[in-house]
Amino acid sequence: MIRWLIQGIVRDKTRFLFPFIVVGVGVALMITMLGFMDGIFMSMVETTSILDTGHLRLVNKAYYDEEHLNPMDRALGGQKATGKWLEEHSGTSIQWLPRIRWGAILDVPDEQGETLSQTPIQGMAMDLSSASPEIERLKLQKSLVQGSLPQHRFEMLIGYQLAETLDLQPGDSVTLIGQSFDGGLASDNYKVTGLIRFGVFAMDKKMALIDLKDAQDTFYMEDMVTEWLGFFPSRVAFQDYGRRKMELEPELKALKSQPPAGWYVDDDPILLTILEQRNMDEMAKMFLLIRGILLVIFTFLMVLVLWNAALLNGIHRYGEMGLRLALGETHIRLVGLAVFEALVIGCAGALAGSLLGGGLVWYLQEVGVDMGDAFAQSGMMLTDVMRGRLSLEGFVYGIVPGLAASALGTLCASFAIFKRSEANLFREMEV
Amino acid sequence: MLELKQVSKTYRVGNQDFPALKNISLTIEENAFMSFVGPSGSGKTTLLNLMGGLDRPTSGQVLFDGAQLESMNRSELAQIRKQHIGFIFQSHNLLPVYSVYENVLFPLLLNHLKEQDARERVMALVEKVGLTEQANKKPAELSGGQCQRVAIARALIKRPKLVLADEPTANLDTENSFRILELMQDLNEQYGAAFVFSTHDQRVTQFINREVRLEDGAVLWDKAKNGNGELE
Hints:
heterodimer, A: alpha+beta, 2 domains, 17 helices, 53% helix, elongated, B: alpha/beta, 4-stranded antiparallel sheet, 28% strand
């Protein structure tokens, strides 16, 4: 019987083509839309985490409370001991990287050593040695517009737009003038070795990177960092970060009761997920809500269209349904088989839609859409190139509503079958 | 095999009752080859509906092999139709996307027979109705007479006890009508299924063994053929 039904579906284009196209296009649109939305949001999450918050962040509470002021005097001591503890207690699935966030004036001298130009900049210090995972995580090698990565002490990378503003080239010397850990004047000469395109307008215009050791020397922060950023593998969803944080918190509490040497008396490190910073939680909720609403709207529209398609199909097959009732099929079985047919067509449509939608998302993931001009003045931590994100979840959210709409649309239309009276069959089938 | 006892059927339209059948009592024997004749609105189709378990009487009993059809639920009636009753409609109502072979096969699939087990049986019946050459053709490629032959094969394939045919020759020319009636007569003798027609067609009379005339929902007369082939 199933083979017989499938033969009918394959041979009868009017039964097959329209619902196939509706489901196919619907699923393709859904997968593309969700893939692109996921891609943009996850790209924002990743960019923010890499450049700013990590997936998890260990930071002194006092520093976090005032971080807009760059309060380096509230940095966390005992870098080596803390790093060792994090490595031992977080498991291998999270990578912890020490950072120092700093702010300073970048002074460009002329040949006589007089100030040629200067500007306030934001900076980040991290391990820039050749074996450092930071190089890969920030894609520094690929992001180099000009020059090379730092190889020696007191070398610096700067955003390419900052370099344009200050008319700097790789090899030029600059002076950092800032505030030391204990409030004194801090000043050191650095050599610009490379110009970086971060892909985030705000950073390309104002950011400089130096090695962690150099920053500790410049700002008198021996064995201190402003924060530790923790990164999960990409398979860990952002919704899980909170649970992973809660697993680590009791251990941190135990550590605080017996703090390592190097911590100051008032050091009180706290753990924060990315969702607890930069208003990301609200954005994530809003993102999930919008995604859910779009999902419901799309599914509803598909149900409406497929309902109509099933009604047309019911008219097209009015004689067949009557005949089958007369031959002894029950109403419920007729409806069941109609739903089965709809699901077969839905599966074919969903497969085609998945290939089409998956292909589009793959293209968006690999090539992306350059929105750099649109975001140029936004200052948001968004990469210039918006990319899709191909994920199993995207396919599930595309295919399941597609199949559900096929079944629901047919069920709605099948009320006509239930209403049909056998007593009228002879008369109905005269023509 | 089928017995109607004091069967009445009344339709209610708005506030008015319209009696379609009035106290009909009939017995249909196995192997019967008979027709209901009468003008439009005399109750022929209503009677076929009741005999085929497609409708229920307002009063009276319809007994199929001793089972009361009027007390059965929808799915029990469907089961009786599926196993024991074949239908031939005025319009052949073949499924257009399936071949002759597949249209004839269909009732067996509804009865959960597998195609490989049913193939020989289907082809034998297709041959019997003279359509072996057309077995793989679609209904659109056949003439009206050929389509009605397929409909007959479809009605008979499950070896029903009763075949109900509503105006089976109404859409056919004289030559095709005769061929169809001869075929049904032949199959009635070979398969032993009772054939009951409703018809306006006087040409049918020379083929049937019994004729029941209905007027205004009541039996006007019920005649069977005598040894001379005359209805009396």
